[in-house]
Amino acid sequence: MNTTNPFDDIEQFLGRTPFAGERAWGRDLRTADIDVTEYDDEFVVMADLPGFDRDGIDVRVDDDRLTIAAERDAEHEDADRRYLRRERRHESVTRTVDLPATIRPDEATATYRHGVLTVTIPLDAVEADEGHRIDVN
């Protein structure tokens, strides 16, 4: 009886086979998953960047756009190790977010804890337009 795994056909179609070389899709084209929140006084972007070092993360504001880029290299090859499959190599992730015109980029802060980058950019106070009151005689 010949038993086959239905996932073998899918992996072969996608360019992957068990213990084969590089994946044909998705490598170096990743983006970070993000949450974007706007409050009355600040704009907050949270990005998932698990496994990246703080030194490998670049955060920039340019032309009303926030760009988050991160790069990492996996551990160096060990000559004494016999790899059956090796996928953890150089990886880069990038994400760009449009920012509101009222940001104050000079006061922006970024923290990186437990694989999550949080960028907080203060907003200029926008007073609610209540109009002009007309007294009734």
Automatic annotation (TrEMBL):
PANTHER family: HEAT-SHOCK PROTEIN 20 FAMILY MEMBER. It comes from Halorubrum ejinorense. It holds the Pfam family HSP20. Residues 25-137 form the SHSP domain. PROSITE patterns: SHSP. Signal peptide: none annotated. This is Archaeal heat shock protein Hsp14. InterPro entries: A-crystallin/Hsp20_dom (IPR002068), HSP20-like_chaperone (IPR008978), Small_HSP (IPR031107). The keyword Hydrolase does not apply. Belongs to the small heat shock protein (HSP20) family. Keywords: Stress response.
